[in-house]
Amino acid sequence: MTTAVTARAHTNIALVKYWGKADQHLILPETSSLSLTLDQFYTDTTVAFDPALSADEVTVNQQRLSPAASQKVRHLLDLVRAQSRQDTFARVTSTNHVPMAAGLASSASAFAALAGAASQAAGLTLSRRDLSRLARRGSGSATRSIYGGFVEWHAGHNDATSYAEPLLEQVTWPVAIVALVLDPHQKRVSSRQGMQASVATSPYYPAWKQVVAHDLAAIKPAILDHDFTQVGEILESNAMRMHALTLSADPAFSYFNGATLTAMQTVRDLRAAGIACYYTLDAGPNLKVFCQSQDIAAITARFTHDFGHDRVIVAHPGPGLSWL
C-alpha cells in the first residue's frame, strides 16, 4: 500500500469560541462552537503508507520533524491504522499556507488535511462526520475544517457525539475577513496550555459556558437571516469574553500585543466613521476583521497604512476538505 493521496483543508476562524477541553485525550470541548472557513489559508498534505518504512516520516514545510515534534501526527496515523486494521508506517509531507501557531488556526487545516489524506491512503471511505471526528483527535478546531462556510461543532459527550456539521456551507452572503498578521511567530502560550490554565484557575469559567450557549443560540439565526450587525456584535463580544478568561487566570496571561490593541481601536474608529466591521481573534495576537465586501477597500487601505501591505490579507468564505 504505497499509493500517495493528497488532501487540502482550509483553516477556520471561530466566531463563537471553543476554549477548554472536557476530555484531554479525546479532545472533547467544554462547549460547542461556531466558525467560518476561510479561502486564503490552507494546508496541503500527502500521505503514503509504505511497507519499506521502519517508522513514520513527517515533513512539514520541507522540514523533517523529530519523533517528539511529530507525536500528534503519529497519534492520528495510529487511529487510522487501527481503523484500517494495518500496521504499515506512513510518509507524510505537508505544506502549510498559514502562519503556524500564531492564532490563525494552522492546526485546524493541518489535521483536517491529514485526516482526509491518511484515511483515504489507508483505504478507508469515511463520511464527512467521521472525518470530522477523526480530525478532532488531532486538533479540536480541525473538526470544523472538514466543511466550508459557517460550521458548528457539537461538543457532545463522547467520541461518537462530538463532531462538526455545516450550518451554511454555500455562502452567498457578501461577507469577508480582513486578516491582520501582526506577529507571524509562534506564540509563547500554546492554545492547549492557555485552555488548561483558564479552565483550572479563572473564577469566571462557569459563566463562560453560559455565554457560549447564549451566543450560539443568537448567532445561528442571525447568520441564516444575513443580519450582519447582529453577527458582528456577537462575535466581537464573544472573543473579548474568551480573552477575559486568560486575563483572569492565575497567573494571568494575554495573547494581545501593542499592535493588537491598536488594531482593535482602529476597528472601533472605522465603525464610528460609518464603516461596519467587527473584530475577533483566537489564541494569538492577530486580528481578524469581519466586514462586508463593499467595505473591503476602505478597511484594507486603513490597515495597510497602519501596518504595511504585507500584513493585510483579505479572505472570503472558503470550501471544505478536498482531494487533489
Describe, in plain words, how this protein is organized in 3D.
With 324 residues, the chain is of the alpha+beta class. It folds into two domains: 5-170, Ribosomal Protein S5, domain 2 (2-Layer Sandwich); 175-315, GHMP kinase, C-terminal domain (Alpha-Beta Plaits), CATH 3.30.70.890. Helices cover 36% and strands 25% of the residues. It is built from eight helices and 14 strands. The strands form three sheets. Strands 1, 4, 5, 6, 7, 8, 9 and 14 form an eight-stranded mixed β-sheet that branches. It has a four-stranded antiparallel β-sheet with strand order 11-12-10-13. A two-stranded antiparallel sheet has the order 2-3. Helix 1 runs parallel beside helix 2, helix 2 packs across helix 3 and helix 5 (205-224) runs antiparallel to helix 6. The mean pLDDT is 95.
Quick gist of this model?
With 324 residues, this protein is α+β, with helices and mostly antiparallel strands. 36% of the residues lie in helices and 25% in strands.
Notable traits:
single chain; 324 residues; alpha+beta; Ribosomal Protein S5, domain 2; Alpha-Beta Plaits; 2 domains; 8-stranded mixed sheet; 4-stranded antiparallel sheet; 8 helices; 36% helix; 25% strand; globular
